Amino acid sequence: PRHPTASHPALPPRPPGVGVPAPRAVARWRRLGALAWARPALPLRGQERAEAALLRALATVPGGLARRPLAEPRAPASRASAARDSVASRLLDLGFCDAQVGALLAARPGTRPQQLLGVASELLLLGLHPEPACVALTRSPSLLGLPLLQLRKRCSYLRKLGLEEGKLRRVLSCCPEVLSMPQRDLDAVLSVLREKCLFSARQAVEILRRCPHVLRADPTELEYKFQYAHFRMGLKHVEVVRTGFLQYPMAKIRQRHMFLERLGHYQTPDKKGQTQVPNPPLKDILRVSEAEFLARTARAPADEFEVFKKLLAREEDEAPESRLPEDGADRAPEDGEEH
Fold first, then answer.
1. Which residues are CB-contacts of 231 (< 8 A; sequence separation ≥ 6)?
2. N- or C-end of the chain: fewer Cβ atoms within 10 A?
3. What pTM did the predictor assign?
4. Can you tell me the distance from the alpha carbon of 317 to that of 320, in angstroms, rounded to the nearest whole number?
Protein backbone atom coordinates (compact mmCIF):
# COMPACT_ATOMS: atom_id res chain seq x y z
CA PRO A 1 0.00 0.00 0.00
CA ARG A 2 1.11 3.53 -0.75
CA HIS A 3 1.87 6.09 1.93
CA PRO A 4 -0.15 9.19 1.23
CA THR A 5 2.51 11.47 2.73
CA ALA A 6 5.45 10.07 0.74
CA SER A 7 6.75 12.30 -1.98
CA HIS A 8 8.70 9.55 -3.72
CA PRO A 9 7.37 6.59 -5.65
CA ALA A 10 5.91 3.71 -3.73
CA LEU A 11 8.42 1.39 -2.04
CA PRO A 12 7.98 -2.38 -1.77
CA PRO A 13 6.14 -3.64 1.30
CA ARG A 14 8.31 -3.84 4.39
CA PRO A 15 8.11 -6.53 7.05
CA PRO A 16 6.42 -5.78 10.35
CA GLY A 17 8.59 -4.02 12.98
CA VAL A 18 10.80 -2.22 10.50
CA GLY A 19 10.88 1.61 10.63
CA VAL A 20 10.15 3.88 7.75
CA PRO A 21 13.29 3.94 5.51
CA ALA A 22 14.99 7.15 4.44
CA PRO A 23 14.06 8.44 0.99
CA ARG A 24 16.10 6.92 -1.80
CA ALA A 25 17.03 9.16 -4.69
CA VAL A 26 18.67 6.40 -6.73
CA ALA A 27 16.80 3.44 -8.05
CA ARG A 28 19.64 1.02 -7.12
CA TRP A 29 19.42 2.01 -3.48
CA ARG A 30 15.69 1.32 -3.61
CA ARG A 31 16.45 -2.12 -4.96
CA LEU A 32 19.05 -2.69 -2.22
CA GLY A 33 16.51 -1.59 0.37
CA ALA A 34 13.95 -3.96 -1.04
CA LEU A 35 16.54 -6.75 -1.01
CA ALA A 36 17.38 -6.03 2.62
CA TRP A 37 13.70 -5.98 3.68
CA ALA A 38 13.02 -9.20 1.89
CA ARG A 39 16.04 -10.99 3.42
CA PRO A 40 14.22 -12.64 6.38
CA ALA A 41 11.66 -14.16 4.05
CA LEU A 42 14.19 -15.72 1.65
CA PRO A 43 15.40 -19.30 1.95
CA LEU A 44 18.96 -19.93 3.16
CA ARG A 45 20.53 -20.04 -0.30
CA GLY A 46 18.57 -17.06 -1.47
CA GLN A 47 19.68 -15.15 1.63
CA GLU A 48 23.34 -15.92 0.91
CA ARG A 49 22.97 -14.71 -2.66
CA ALA A 50 21.30 -11.56 -1.46
CA GLU A 51 24.10 -10.84 1.02
CA ALA A 52 26.74 -11.44 -1.68
CA ALA A 53 24.93 -9.07 -4.03
CA LEU A 54 24.71 -6.46 -1.29
CA LEU A 55 28.45 -6.70 -0.54
CA ARG A 56 29.28 -6.40 -4.23
CA ALA A 57 27.15 -3.33 -4.52
CA LEU A 58 28.66 -1.69 -1.44
CA ALA A 59 32.17 -2.40 -2.71
CA THR A 60 31.59 0.07 -5.54
CA VAL A 61 30.59 2.88 -3.20
CA PRO A 62 33.31 5.19 -1.69
CA GLY A 63 33.81 4.13 1.88
CA GLY A 64 32.02 0.83 1.21
CA LEU A 65 32.96 -2.51 2.69
CA ALA A 66 35.61 -4.95 1.51
CA ARG A 67 36.97 -3.33 -1.64
CA ARG A 68 39.61 -6.08 -2.04
CA PRO A 69 40.03 -9.59 -0.63
CA LEU A 70 41.55 -9.80 2.83
CA ALA A 71 44.47 -11.98 1.68
CA GLU A 72 45.62 -9.51 -1.01
CA PRO A 73 47.61 -7.15 1.33
CA ARG A 74 49.86 -10.10 2.17
CA ALA A 75 50.87 -10.47 -1.46
CA PRO A 76 53.89 -8.06 -1.35
CA ALA A 77 55.39 -9.89 1.63
CA SER A 78 54.78 -13.17 -0.12
CA ARG A 79 56.49 -11.92 -3.28
CA ALA A 80 59.49 -10.66 -1.24
CA SER A 81 59.80 -14.01 0.48
CA ALA A 82 59.61 -15.79 -2.86
CA ALA A 83 62.34 -13.52 -4.25
CA ARG A 84 64.63 -14.23 -1.28
CA ASP A 85 64.06 -17.95 -1.67
CA SER A 86 64.85 -17.75 -5.36
CA VAL A 87 68.09 -15.80 -4.76
CA ALA A 88 69.09 -18.17 -1.94
CA SER A 89 68.63 -21.10 -4.30
CA ARG A 90 70.78 -19.45 -6.98
CA LEU A 91 73.51 -18.61 -4.44
CA LEU A 92 73.57 -22.27 -3.45
CA ASP A 93 73.97 -23.15 -7.13
CA LEU A 94 76.98 -20.77 -7.30
CA GLY A 95 78.74 -22.74 -4.56
CA PHE A 96 77.80 -20.91 -1.35
CA CYS A 97 76.81 -23.10 1.59
CA ASP A 98 73.67 -22.59 3.67
CA ALA A 99 75.51 -20.67 6.41
CA GLN A 100 77.15 -18.36 3.87
CA VAL A 101 73.84 -17.69 2.13
CA GLY A 102 72.26 -16.76 5.46
CA ALA A 103 75.19 -14.46 6.27
CA LEU A 104 74.91 -12.73 2.89
CA LEU A 105 71.17 -12.20 3.20
CA ALA A 106 71.65 -10.68 6.67
CA ALA A 107 74.78 -8.63 5.85
CA ARG A 108 72.97 -5.49 4.74
CA PRO A 109 69.26 -5.37 5.60
CA GLY A 110 67.18 -3.70 2.94
CA THR A 111 69.34 -4.83 0.02
CA ARG A 112 67.30 -6.14 -2.87
CA PRO A 113 67.90 -9.89 -3.35
CA GLN A 114 68.70 -9.41 -7.04
CA GLN A 115 71.28 -6.74 -6.16
CA LEU A 116 72.95 -9.12 -3.71
CA LEU A 117 73.02 -11.87 -6.30
CA GLY A 118 74.58 -9.53 -8.88
CA VAL A 119 77.38 -8.35 -6.58
CA ALA A 120 78.19 -11.89 -5.43
CA SER A 121 78.30 -13.07 -9.04
CA GLU A 122 80.70 -10.26 -9.99
CA LEU A 123 83.12 -11.27 -7.21
CA LEU A 124 83.05 -14.86 -8.37
CA LEU A 125 83.76 -13.72 -11.93
CA LEU A 126 86.86 -11.93 -10.60
CA GLY A 127 88.24 -15.27 -9.44
CA LEU A 128 87.21 -15.29 -5.78
CA HIS A 129 85.97 -18.52 -4.26
CA PRO A 130 82.64 -18.48 -2.40
CA GLU A 131 84.24 -18.41 1.05
CA PRO A 132 86.51 -15.33 0.55
CA ALA A 133 83.71 -13.63 -1.40
CA CYS A 134 81.36 -14.15 1.56
CA VAL A 135 84.02 -12.85 3.97
CA ALA A 136 84.58 -9.75 1.83
CA LEU A 137 80.87 -8.93 1.58
CA THR A 138 80.13 -9.52 5.25
CA ARG A 139 83.23 -7.55 6.31
CA SER A 140 82.33 -4.65 4.00
CA PRO A 141 78.53 -4.70 3.61
CA SER A 142 78.66 -1.37 1.76
CA LEU A 143 79.77 -3.32 -1.31
CA LEU A 144 76.26 -4.74 -1.56
CA GLY A 145 74.94 -1.25 -2.27
CA LEU A 146 77.27 -0.56 -5.20
CA PRO A 147 75.64 -0.23 -8.62
CA LEU A 148 76.70 -3.15 -10.76
CA LEU A 149 77.94 -0.84 -13.54
CA GLN A 150 80.22 1.02 -11.11
CA LEU A 151 81.50 -2.30 -9.74
CA ARG A 152 82.35 -3.57 -13.21
CA LYS A 153 84.16 -0.33 -14.10
CA ARG A 154 86.31 -0.51 -10.96
CA CYS A 155 87.22 -4.14 -11.63
CA SER A 156 88.18 -3.23 -15.20
CA TYR A 157 90.33 -0.35 -13.89
CA LEU A 158 92.16 -2.64 -11.46
CA ARG A 159 92.85 -5.13 -14.24
CA LYS A 160 94.34 -2.37 -16.37
CA LEU A 161 96.72 -1.55 -13.53
CA GLY A 162 98.03 -5.11 -13.72
CA LEU A 163 96.02 -6.71 -10.91
CA GLU A 164 94.90 -9.77 -12.79
CA GLU A 165 93.08 -12.84 -11.48
CA GLY A 166 95.43 -14.12 -8.76
CA LYS A 167 96.74 -10.70 -7.69
CA LEU A 168 93.29 -9.15 -7.61
CA ARG A 169 91.98 -12.07 -5.56
CA ARG A 170 94.55 -11.40 -2.84
CA VAL A 171 93.85 -7.66 -2.82
CA LEU A 172 90.11 -8.19 -2.47
CA SER A 173 90.57 -10.77 0.27
CA CYS A 174 92.62 -8.36 2.38
CA CYS A 175 91.10 -5.02 1.39
CA PRO A 176 87.67 -5.32 -0.25
CA GLU A 177 87.22 -1.56 0.20
CA VAL A 178 89.25 -1.11 -2.98
CA LEU A 179 86.00 -1.69 -4.88
CA SER A 180 84.08 1.07 -3.10
CA MET A 181 86.73 3.66 -2.16
CA PRO A 182 86.58 6.98 -4.09
CA GLN A 183 88.62 7.06 -7.25
CA ARG A 184 90.58 10.11 -6.06
CA ASP A 185 91.79 8.22 -2.96
CA LEU A 186 92.97 5.31 -5.07
CA ASP A 187 94.73 7.66 -7.49
CA ALA A 188 96.39 9.50 -4.57
CA VAL A 189 97.97 6.28 -3.27
CA LEU A 190 99.19 5.28 -6.72
CA SER A 191 100.53 8.78 -7.33
CA VAL A 192 102.64 8.64 -4.15
CA LEU A 193 104.08 5.25 -5.09
CA ARG A 194 104.88 6.26 -8.66
CA GLU A 195 105.79 9.96 -8.42
CA LYS A 196 106.96 10.55 -4.84
CA CYS A 197 108.59 7.21 -4.05
CA LEU A 198 109.68 6.59 -7.67
CA PHE A 199 108.54 2.96 -7.88
CA SER A 200 108.07 1.54 -11.35
CA ALA A 201 104.60 0.56 -12.54
CA ARG A 202 105.36 -3.12 -11.96
CA GLN A 203 106.76 -2.43 -8.50
CA ALA A 204 103.68 -0.37 -7.56
CA VAL A 205 101.40 -3.24 -8.57
CA GLU A 206 103.53 -5.69 -6.62
CA ILE A 207 103.26 -3.46 -3.55
CA LEU A 208 99.49 -3.50 -3.87
CA ARG A 209 99.57 -7.28 -4.13
CA ARG A 210 101.91 -7.82 -1.18
CA CYS A 211 100.59 -4.97 0.99
CA PRO A 212 96.95 -4.30 0.07
CA HIS A 213 96.52 -2.33 3.31
CA VAL A 214 98.50 0.57 1.82
CA LEU A 215 95.27 1.44 0.01
CA ARG A 216 93.88 2.57 3.37
CA ALA A 217 96.99 4.52 4.31
CA ASP A 218 97.27 8.27 4.33
CA PRO A 219 99.37 9.27 1.28
CA THR A 220 101.57 11.60 3.35
CA GLU A 221 102.31 8.93 5.94
CA LEU A 222 102.96 6.41 3.19
CA GLU A 223 105.55 8.71 1.65
CA TYR A 224 107.20 9.30 5.04
CA LYS A 225 107.40 5.57 5.70
CA PHE A 226 109.22 5.01 2.42
CA GLN A 227 111.61 7.88 3.12
CA TYR A 228 112.40 6.36 6.53
CA ALA A 229 113.17 3.03 4.89
CA HIS A 230 115.27 4.60 2.14
CA PHE A 231 117.21 7.30 4.02
CA ARG A 232 117.35 6.06 7.61
CA MET A 233 117.59 2.31 7.07
CA GLY A 234 119.32 2.34 3.68
CA LEU A 235 116.81 0.06 1.93
CA LYS A 236 116.57 0.04 -1.86
CA HIS A 237 113.33 0.03 -3.82
CA VAL A 238 113.64 -3.67 -4.59
CA GLU A 239 114.09 -4.50 -0.90
CA VAL A 240 111.08 -2.40 0.10
CA VAL A 241 108.93 -4.28 -2.42
CA ARG A 242 110.31 -7.76 -1.73
CA THR A 243 110.07 -7.56 2.05
CA GLY A 244 106.63 -5.94 2.18
CA PHE A 245 108.08 -3.13 4.30
CA LEU A 246 105.14 -0.77 3.77
CA GLN A 247 102.68 -3.11 5.47
CA TYR A 248 104.23 -2.71 8.95
CA PRO A 249 103.14 0.01 11.39
CA MET A 250 105.50 2.96 11.64
CA ALA A 251 105.70 2.69 15.44
CA LYS A 252 106.93 -0.91 15.23
CA ILE A 253 109.51 0.00 12.57
CA ARG A 254 110.94 2.89 14.57
CA GLN A 255 111.07 1.04 17.88
CA ARG A 256 112.91 -2.02 16.60
CA HIS A 257 115.19 -0.19 14.18
CA MET A 258 116.28 2.49 16.65
CA PHE A 259 116.70 -0.06 19.45
CA LEU A 260 119.13 -2.03 17.27
CA GLU A 261 120.82 1.18 16.22
CA ARG A 262 121.48 2.30 19.80
CA LEU A 263 122.70 -1.15 20.72
CA GLY A 264 125.20 -0.94 17.85
CA HIS A 265 123.58 -3.78 15.87
CA TYR A 266 122.40 -1.63 12.96
CA GLN A 267 124.01 1.19 11.02
CA THR A 268 122.74 3.39 8.21
CA PRO A 269 124.75 2.63 5.04
CA ASP A 270 126.89 5.38 3.56
CA LYS A 271 126.63 6.63 0.00
CA LYS A 272 128.40 3.53 -1.25
CA GLY A 273 126.03 1.27 0.67
CA GLN A 274 128.68 0.14 3.15
CA THR A 275 128.45 -0.20 6.92
CA GLN A 276 130.95 -0.90 9.68
CA VAL A 277 128.69 -3.56 11.20
CA PRO A 278 126.63 -6.16 9.34
CA ASN A 279 122.99 -5.17 9.49
CA PRO A 280 120.53 -7.99 10.24
CA PRO A 281 118.05 -8.93 7.50
CA LEU A 282 114.80 -7.06 7.55
CA LYS A 283 112.83 -10.27 8.05
CA ASP A 284 114.65 -10.81 11.37
CA ILE A 285 113.62 -7.31 12.45
CA LEU A 286 109.97 -7.00 11.43
CA ARG A 287 108.59 -10.40 10.48
CA VAL A 288 109.33 -12.10 13.80
CA SER A 289 107.56 -11.80 17.12
CA GLU A 290 108.88 -9.46 19.81
CA ALA A 291 110.24 -12.35 21.89
CA GLU A 292 112.11 -13.78 18.90
CA PHE A 293 113.35 -10.32 17.92
CA LEU A 294 114.84 -9.76 21.38
CA ALA A 295 116.32 -13.26 21.63
CA ARG A 296 117.83 -13.67 18.16
CA THR A 297 118.29 -10.20 16.63
CA ALA A 298 118.73 -7.68 19.47
CA ARG A 299 120.07 -10.16 22.06
CA ALA A 300 118.66 -7.97 24.83
CA PRO A 301 116.28 -8.54 27.77
CA ALA A 302 112.61 -7.69 27.44
CA ASP A 303 112.60 -5.19 30.32
CA GLU A 304 115.35 -3.16 28.62
CA PHE A 305 113.28 -2.96 25.44
CA GLU A 306 110.22 -1.84 27.43
CA VAL A 307 112.24 0.96 29.06
CA PHE A 308 113.57 1.99 25.65
CA LYS A 309 110.05 2.23 24.17
CA LYS A 310 108.94 4.49 27.02
CA LEU A 311 112.00 6.74 26.61
CA LEU A 312 111.47 6.88 22.84
CA ALA A 313 107.86 7.90 23.27
CA ARG A 314 108.94 10.65 25.68
CA GLU A 315 111.58 11.90 23.23
CA GLU A 316 109.04 12.07 20.43
CA ASP A 317 106.62 14.03 22.60
CA GLU A 318 109.26 16.55 23.65
CA ALA A 319 111.07 16.99 20.32
CA PRO A 320 109.22 15.49 17.34
CA GLU A 321 111.52 14.31 14.61
CA SER A 322 111.59 16.54 11.55
CA ARG A 323 110.57 15.17 8.19
CA LEU A 324 113.19 13.47 6.09
CA PRO A 325 114.49 14.96 2.83
CA GLU A 326 111.96 14.78 0.02
CA ASP A 327 114.25 15.52 -2.90
CA GLY A 328 115.28 11.85 -3.22
CA ALA A 329 119.00 12.51 -2.72
CA ASP A 330 120.87 9.93 -0.63
CA ARG A 331 122.50 11.34 2.46
CA ALA A 332 124.89 9.58 4.83
CA PRO A 333 124.81 10.67 8.48
CA GLU A 334 127.72 12.75 9.60
CA ASP A 335 130.07 11.58 12.32
CA GLY A 336 128.48 11.93 15.71
CA GLU A 337 125.07 12.67 14.26
CA GLU A 338 122.35 11.16 16.40
CA HIS A 339 119.15 10.05 14.67
1. 268, 324, 325, 330, 331
2. N
3. 0.66
4. 6
